[in-house]
C-alpha cells in the first residue's frame, strides 16, 4: 500500500468514528432513532444503491444512452426508488413504535386499576385512546405497505431495464428508454392513487 493510500485509509477510518452534527446534538432517544434501521441493513442498502448508480454510469454496461438520458433515469428512477425505499422503512418504524406503545399502555391499565386509584387508570386509558386515535388518523400501517409495494415495483422495473430482462428482454437500452420512463410514471400514478385510497377509507370510517 502506498503512502497516499495509507493516508486515505486513515482518513476514512477517522471520519467513520466522527459523530455527525445531528447525532451530537440529539437526545439519547433521537440517537437511537437516527441509527435505525440497524447498521448492517443500512450498509447493505447503501451498497445496493451505489452499485445501481455505478452500473448506470457505465457506458459499456448500459450502452446506447447519452448523458442527458442517464441523468433523467437517475432522477426519475434511481432517486425516486431510493426515496420510496427509505420512506416506507421510516413509516414502518413509526408504525411499530406507535403500536408497541398502545400495547404497553393497554396492558398497564388493568395493573393500575388493581394497584392505584381511578385517576392514574383514567390517565392511562386516555393516553391509550389518544394513541389509538393517532393510529387511525395517520394509517401508518396501510401507508408504509403501499410505499413498500411502490418501492419494490420501481426497483424491480429499473433493474429489469438496466439488465434488459423481463419486458425489456428483446429491446436495447436506447429503444426501451421511452417505454421505461412511461412505466415509471405509471408506478408513480399507482402510488398516488393508493395514497388517495387510504385517505378515502379513513374518511369513510368516520
**Would you report the number of β strands?**
0
What number is the mean pLDDT? 79
Assembly type = single chain
Taken as a percent bin, the fraction of beta residues is under 5%
Descriptors for this entry?
single chain; 206 residues; mainly alpha; 2 domains
Task: Describe it.
Helix 4 (39-57) packs antiparallel against helix 5, helix 5 (67-115) packs antiparallel against helix 6 (118-138) and helix 7 runs antiparallel to helix 8. The protein is built from eight helices and no strands. It is elongated and about 75 Å long. By secondary structure, it is mainly alpha-helical. The chain has two domains: 1-35; 39-205, no CATH class.
Which helices and strands, and how do they pair?
Blueprint: H1 3-17, H2 21-24, H3 28-34, H4 39-57, H5 67-115, H6 118-138, H7 140-163, H8 173-205
Short description:
This protein is an all-alpha fold and 206 residues long. It has helices at residues 3-17, 21-24, 28-34, 39-57, 67-115, 118-138, 140-163, 173-205. The protein has 2 domains: 1-35; 39-205, no CATH class.
